[in-house]
Amino acid sequence: MDPMMPPPVRRIAIDREPYVAPARPAGNGHAPAATAATALRTARPVAAQVRERMRIESVWLAYGENWVVRDVSLPVRQGEVLAMIGASGSGKTTLLRSLNRLTEITAGAARVGHITLDGNDIHELEVNELRRHVTMVFQQPNPFPMSIFDNVAYALAERPTRGGRRRRRSPEIERAVVDALQRAGLYGELAGDLERSALRLSGGQQQRLCIARALAADPQVLLLDEPCSALDPISTATIEELIVSLRDSVAIVIVTHNLQQAFRVADHVAFMHLGELVEYGTSEQIFDRPAMQRTRDYISGAFG
Amino acid sequence: MDRALTRRWATGKTDQRAERTLGALAVAVLVLIGAMLVTVVIKAWPSFSHNGLSWFGPGGDVDTQIRAMAESKALPGRSLYYFRAWPLIWGTLLTTVGAVLIALVVSMLAAIFLTEFAPPAIRRVLDPVIRLLAGVPSVIYGLIGILVLARYIDNHWISNARRASVNYVVQLNGNDVMTATLILTLMILPIMVAITASALASVPGAWREGSLALGVNRWRTIWRVSLRTARPAIVAATVLATARALGEAVMLAMVSGGRGFAPNLLDGVTALFEPVRPLAATILQNKEGLTIPVLAHTVYAIAAVLLVSAAMLSFAGWFAKQRFHRYGLRA
Amino acid sequence: MAATELAPAPPSGSVIARAPRERTGSWPLIDRIAYFLCWTVGIGLCLIALAIVLFMAVKGISYLRPSLLVNSPAPSVVQSQSGGFLDPIEGTLLVAAIGTVIAAPLGVAIAAWLAEYRRPSWLARAVESAIEVMAGAPSVVLALFGLLIFAQDFLGFLSQRAATGAVYGRSFFAAGAVMSILALPLIVSATREGFAQLPDRLREASYALGRTRATTIRRVLLPAIRPDIATGTALGMGRIVGDTAIITILLGAGLTMQPVGHTPVIGLLRGTGPTLTSYVYENSPAGEGLAPQKAYAAAFVLLLIVLALNAFVTWLTNGGARSEGGGLSRALRLIPFMPNLSR
C-alpha cells in the first residue's frame, strides 16, 4: 500500500431500521416546532398603528478602506419588528450599530448617506442624547457589576430633568425601574429583591435585565444584536415573546442569523448579503415568496 | 480535573519525602517571621511597660529624651525609659497620610488619562517611564529631594518673615514636611498609577460598550463603571503604597528635617515648612545607639509600632477586598 | 453561487464623514472639569517623569568618568582625589548575589509547595500570611531583626568579634541574608503566578504516565515556568539593589571594603563595605556630603542597573518565551523521555 494514498472510504452497512423517537402527545404543550411557530405568528394581533421612526437613506459604511455596507435604504417603524438577516460578514451588525452611532467608537469608521430619527439627522444630534432615544442590547448579556436596581437605574440618573438630575433613590426613579422590569417581564421573577448583584442572575434573566435597562430610558427605538444566540431555547422563547409584546411601544430592529427566529418574530425582514440590501419585504414575502434568487438560496440553506 | 484525585494518584515514597522537605522549608519561613514578630515585641516590651499608653502621647522633646537615653550608663533607671513618641507619630501621620491622599487622587486621574484619553504616542512613552520610576531606589529620590527640591523650597517658598515667626522654636531650612510629603508622593505614585491603569485596562469591553450604548458619556462611563470595577485594585494599590510610605526610612531621613519636632498646625501654612522625623527615619538615625539597652528597647518599640501598623494595613486591605466580592469584582 | 458585480464605491461627489471624536463641549460642566483635570494631571505627570529621568541622566553623565568605575574610594576632602566607586559597585553586586542565591531556591521551593501541595490547608494559609507580612514589613525593621540574629554568639563566624568578645553582627553575610527576606515575597508570588497559569492537562499528562508529583514539578512544571522564576528573581534583585536601610544598619557607612581575616572570599563576606546606595547616601548632604557630584554619578550607575533589570523583566514578560505554545509544548515533549522514577 502506498503510504501517501489516503485510506479507502468505507461504507458502514446498517441492517436495521433507523430509530425514530416517538411523537409526544400534544397535551404536553410541546407541539412540533413548525406549527408552534406559525401559531405564534398567527396568534399575534395586528399592530394598533405603525408609524415610521427612523429612515436609513442610501447609507454606505466603511471601516478603513473597506466598504462594509453598500447603499442600503430602509425604514424603521414603531409597531413592527424589523429583522435583518444574512450570512456572516453581510454588514447587518455594522448597519445596526450605525443606527445609534456606536460605529464611531472604532477609529477609521466612515459613512456616506443619511440616517434620520423622527425627521432629524442623527449626526446632528448630540451623540449621548441620540443613544438615549435609540438603545441597544448586545449579544452577550452584559449587566454591570452592580445591583439589579442600579443596573436598570443606570441611565436614568443621566437624564437631565427640569429640576436638575434626579437623585438616586427618588420615587420617580424607583417607579421607572419597576416599570422597566415589568415591561421586560422580569419583575415577577425577582421576588422584590432588587439589591442582589446582577451577576447572580441566570443568562436569560441577565439578558432580560439588559432589555429592561435599555427600556428604562424610554427609548423610541430598541436595537437588538443577536440577543438570544448565547441563551438556551426556553430563555430564547421568553425573550421572543417579550420582543413581540414590546413592538407597539418601541420600534424594534433585531439582527439575527437564526432564520427560524426571524420567522417567529419579525414583521418586516431585510436580507443583506456582502453589504448590500438584497431584498426587503414582509416576512410572508421573504419566507414564502422570495423574489430574488439569492434570497431563495439563503432561506433554503444553500449557503450561510 | 479533580484536584483531590490527582493528589491521591501521585503519591509515592519520593513524593512524601519531597512534600515533607518543601513543607519544612515553608514552615521554616513561617517560623522565621513568627520569631521576628515575637522578638521585636519582646525587645520592645520594656519601653512600653515603663511608659504605658502615654508612650504614644505628647510630652516633651523627643530628641532630648533620646539623648538622655544615649548618655545613660549600662544601668537603666526607671526614668530613663521616659519616652513620648507623639512628635514622631505626628510626623509620620502628616507625611504618610498626606502623600497617600495626594497620590490617590493624582494616580486615579493619571491612570484614567493613560488608559482613556491619552494619544497613543504619549501612552507608548509614559508606560515604560512609569515602570522605570516604580523601580527607582528610594535613595535617589532622597538625593533629588535634598539637592533640588529642598533647596528650591528653602530659597523660594520660605520667606524671612516666616523664618522669623518660628525662630524661637525651630530653624527652617528646606527639609520639612512639605518636601518630605512631596517626595514621598512622587515615590509612591508610579506603582499606584501602574496598578490602577492596568486594572482600568482590564475592565471588560462589553461593560464599556454597553454603557456608551445607553447614552452615558465617556467620562461618566469611566467613573461609574470602570473605576468601580477597578476598586479592588485601587484598594490594593493604596495599601501597598501606604505600607511603602510607612516603612520608608532613608529618603525621609534625608529630606524631612531630622528633628523630632511636631509641626503646630496653628502656625498655619508655616507648619508645612517645619521639620519632622517620621518613625522609620528615627530608627535609622539611632542605629549607632543600639548597644545601649535603654535606647535599644525604645528603638525596638518604634519598630514594633511600624510592624504592627504594616500588619494591620494588610489586614485592612484584605478585608476591603472581601467586600467587593459581593458584586462580582475580583482584583 | 455566482459572484455578482458589487458596486465598488459610493458615487463620486458624495460626502464621506469620518467618525468624529466625541466632542466634550456638550458634556455637563462637572464632566468637562474632570476631563480637563485628567489631561492636566496626565501631562503634568509626563513632564515630571521625563524631568526626573532627564535630570538624573544629565547630572550622571556629566559627572561620570570611566576612571570612577575602576578606582576605589579614597577618603579625601578634595573631590578629584577621592577616588571612584569600584568598591560600592562590588558591594552592590555582592549583596545582590548573596540575597538572590538564598532567596531564589527557597522562594521557588515555597511557591511549589504552596501551588502543588498545600497540605494541611491551614498551614498553607499561615505561610501565605507570613509571606504577606514579609512583603509589607519595613526594611528597617527587617534590618533590626537581622542585627539581633547575627549579633548572637554562635553566629560570630559570619562577621567579626570586637575586642570585648561581642559579636559585631555586621557583614555582607548578614546583609545578604536579610536582603533575601526582601526578595523572597517577589519570587514566591511570581513563581506562584507561573504555576497557576499552567493548565491542568500538563500535570494530568505527567501523572497519567506514572510520574510522581515531585518529578512532575521538577522535570515538567519548573522548566515550563522558567520565565516567571526569572521575572521574580529580577524583581527581587531590583528591590535588593535599591535598598539602603538594611545596608546602613547591617553594613555600616564605610567607603571601602574591609575584609575580616585573610581567607580570600570568606574574608570579604565576613567584612563590611559600601554599596552604591550607601555610597550615594554618604556623599549626599545627609551623610558626609563631601562629594555630591560623585553621588550623582553613583546614582546614575545605580539607575542603569535598575533599568537593565527592568528591561530584562519586560523582555521576559513580553517576549516569545512567555507564549503558551513555547513553554507548554516544550514541557509536553519532555514527559515521555524522563526516566521512570516512580516507586
List keywords for this structure.
heterotrimer; A: about 300 residues; alpha/beta; 10 helices; globular; C: about 350 residues; mainly alpha; 14 helices
As a whole number of angstroms, the C-alpha radius of gyration of chain A is 22 Å
What is the number of beta strands of chain A?
10
Q: What fraction of the residues of chain A are assigned to beta strands by DSSP?
A: 15-25%
Shape of chain B: globular
Helix content of chain A: 25-40%
Q: Return the string of H and E elements of chain B.
A: HHHHHHHHHHHHHH
What is the helix tally of chain B?
14
Structural class of chain A: alpha/beta
Task: Provide the residue-averaged pLDDT of chain B.
Answer: 83
How widely separated are the two ends of chain A? 40 Å
The end-to-end span of chain B amounts to: 25 Å
Main β-sheet description of chain A = 6 strands, mixed
Which consecutive residue ranges of chain B, at least 5 long each, have pLDDT under 50? none
Number of strands of chain B: 0
Structure annotation, total helices of chain A: 10
Low-confidence runs of at least 5 consecutive residues of chain A: 28-35, 160-166
Element order, helices and strands of chain A? HEEEHEEHEHHHEHEHEEHH
